[in-house]
Amino acid sequence: MPKRALLIVALLLPLSLVITATTNHLVGEALQSAQPSLAWLATAAIPSFMVIFCLYIALGDRRALDWPSLAPQNTRSILRLSAIWLTLWLAGCTAFAVMTGHWIVYARGVPLVAAFLVFGPLGEELLFRGIIYERVQQVWPRSSLLPIAISSIAFSLHHIWLGAAPDGLAMAQLLFTLPMGIVFALLRQRSGSIWPSALLHFATNLPATF
Known about the structure:
There is one protein chain. This protein is an all-alpha fold. The protein has one domain (2-61, 71-208). The chain is built from 9 helices and no strands. The termini are far apart.
């Protein structure tokens, strides 16, 4: 099992960098040619979510899809970490808005909002806090640090390729996507489920949506 898990990790890490952007781009072009009225599906990141969901069903531990049943101390720990992250995140967003003179909005239109709030975050949680986290944990079962570190680095690098091409803005995202990935992975570790990190992911994306 560790050898198989190691092979899956070795294949998934490079694939995780491009799977979202490439899948949505290819499906979007195909729909634009064959059925333009459905091209919004790619904009909403539904094709990439479906591909990642199928990968998770095939390769992931489906127990992580269960709602976590937590001891009170774990619940308090998760809520405390989530509150600290959101406070720092909102403070950082506000400071950046003051410096630039305007609030940064990443999503305009219903399909992009759906991608930014629903299908994109869920796909990322299934991929990074799901398959990659779980398989790294299988390869190094005695390490609590490696699943967090590897899944967080992969999550951060993945954001470079979400746009049309890597540029300065995409590279700048590494400054906040890496700590974001670490926080999400810590929630995954403390809860045994992807749902706490998925909810915090939604809450993190929400201020830059409207």
